[in-house]
């Protein structure tokens, strides 16, 4: 008989910390495999009994001290088994049950029939005022050539750091590629002290984006499920301008209230920073392409400028320094940082921004090391 039922909403690493330490754990996948095997054995016994015309007393239920289900394991359960989950586990004598991010239809079965379900939600780190002061000090040394962005960014982040808002802070970054939009999101995540949650929207095609956004079969991936499992309160939707505008309505409630819900999952995203990057040339273009209903939901729309020659030089210097520092001691003896910068300076303004410069540095160093290796 179930004595303890725990629903945990959040990332796996924290869920594991909640599990009993001195109790044997059985995962839902292991239980499903065991159940399938016993079903086949039972079918064989029935056939044998009919042949021998002999009766057999019913078996006792196997004892399961603690049943655990991780988020990814629900996909291994059939749709019918998920909808009749209580009947499935009734085959066993389960003492305690721990479910990570259970699908809505599974959770409802317990909430409707058990009064002692304990719900635990992961508490995410959020931006503090000290983090805001750190951004003020460090941002120009981390993201080059975006002096105007720093002030707009700090102004936008202040209500969240001052605990004056509970809904997500939703920002739209626009401007050319390779000028620091995604790097700014990574940096904010680093300041908060968490791993950035990032989804690259250009990777999705229309036929697979719809079930990902709105939910399809519980066995498939979905944004709601991913948001439930995230480890960070800093969320990056990279290349937000790429999906079809038909999908924009999926984000209304998330941006307004911090709730993202599909047919299987309901994610709560409160006191988070949601950053959407785009390559729009202006705020007017962003409003026209995204549409007024979605554009109005951004708390701040921040422009990133093309990098100046001075900024490109600073990026080149930093990229060379960091790339050489990552080499072995013997390799560093083969590369002159001054000569490396000098050879790449005419190419630094090639139009690909920071990523283009970093690629040039990697290629140039690899070329020099290869020539040396071939000579040896």
Structure commentary:
This protein has 17 helices and twelve strands. It has helices at 12-18, 28-52, 79-83, 85-89, 104-113, 129-142, 147-161, 181-192, 206-214, 223-229, 252-257, 283-290, 292-295, 309-325, 329-334, 337-344, 353-375, and strands at residues 4-9, 25-27, 63-69, 93-100, 117-121, 169-174, 197-200, 234-238, 259-261, 266-268, 273-278, 300-303. The strands form three sheets. A five-stranded parallel sheet has the order 2-3-4-1-5. The chain has a five-stranded parallel sheet with strand order 7-8-11-6-12, with helices on one face. Helix 6 (129-142) packs antiparallel against helix 7, helix 6 (129-142) packs antiparallel against helix 8 (181-192) and helix 14 (309-325) crosses helix 17. The longest helix has 25 residues, at 28-52. It is globular. The mean pLDDT is 88.
**Element order: H for helix, E for strand:** EHEHEHHEHEHHEHEHHEHEEEHHEHHHH
Mean pLDDT: 88
Largest sheet: 5 strands, parallel
Strands in their spatial order, largest beta sheet: 2-3-4-1-5
User: What spatial form do the alpha-carbon principal axes imply?
Assistant: globular
| Unreliably modeled segments | none
- Radius of gyration from the alpha-carbon trace, in angstroms: 27 Å
Number of helices: 17
> Would you count the extended β strands for me?
12
Please give the alpha-carbon distance between the first and last residues: 72 Å
As a percent range, the share of strand residues is 15-25%
Query: Which class of secondary structure composition applies to the elements?
Result: alpha/beta
């Amino acid at each position: 008989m179930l004595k303890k039922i725990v629903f945990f909403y959040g990332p796996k690493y924290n869920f594991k910390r909640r599990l009993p330490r001195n109790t044997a754990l059985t995962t839902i996948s292991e239980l499903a495999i065991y159940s399938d095997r016993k079903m086949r054995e039972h079918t064989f016994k029935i056939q044998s009994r009919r042949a021998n015309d002999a009766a057999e007393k019913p078996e006792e239920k196997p004892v399961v001290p603690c049943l655990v289900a991780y988020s990814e394991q629900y996909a291994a359960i059939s749709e019918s088994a998920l909808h009749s989950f209580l009947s499935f586990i009734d085959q066993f004598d389960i003492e305690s049950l721990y479910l990570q991010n259970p699908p809505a239809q599974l959770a409802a079965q317990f909430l409707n029939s058990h009064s002692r379900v304990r719900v635990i939600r992961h508490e995410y780190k959020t931006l503090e005022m000290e983090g805001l002061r750190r951004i003020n000090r460090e941002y120009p040394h981390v993201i080059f050539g975006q002096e105007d962005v720093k002030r707009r960014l700090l102004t936008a982040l202040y209500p969240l750091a001052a605990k004056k808002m509970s809904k997500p802070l939703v920002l739209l970054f626009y401007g050319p590629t390779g000028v620091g939009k995604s790097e700014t999101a990574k940096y904010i995540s680093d300041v908060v002290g968490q791993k950035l949650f990032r989804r690259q929207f250009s990777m999705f095609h229309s036929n697979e984006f719809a079930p990902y956004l709105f939910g399809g079969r519980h066995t498939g991936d979905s944004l709601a499920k991913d948001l439930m499992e995230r480890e960070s309160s800093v969320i990056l939707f990279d290349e937000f301008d790429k999906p079809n505008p038909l999908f924009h309505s999926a984000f209304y409630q998330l941006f307004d209230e911090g709730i993202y819900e599909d047919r299987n999952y309901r994610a709560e995203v409160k006191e988070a920073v949601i950053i959407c990057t785009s390559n729009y040339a202006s705020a007017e273009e962003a409003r026209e392409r995204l549409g007024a209903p979605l554009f109005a939901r951004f708390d701040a729309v921040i422009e990133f400028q093309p990098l100046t020659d001075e900024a490109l030089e600073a990026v080149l210097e930093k990229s060379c320094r960091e790339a050489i520092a990552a080499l072995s001691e013997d390799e560093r003896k083969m590369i002159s940082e001054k000569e490396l910068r000098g050879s790449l300076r005419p190419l630094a303004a090639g139009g690909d921004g920071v990523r283009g410069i970093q690629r040039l540095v990697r290629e140039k160093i690899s070329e020099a090391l290869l020539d040396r290796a071939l000579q040896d």
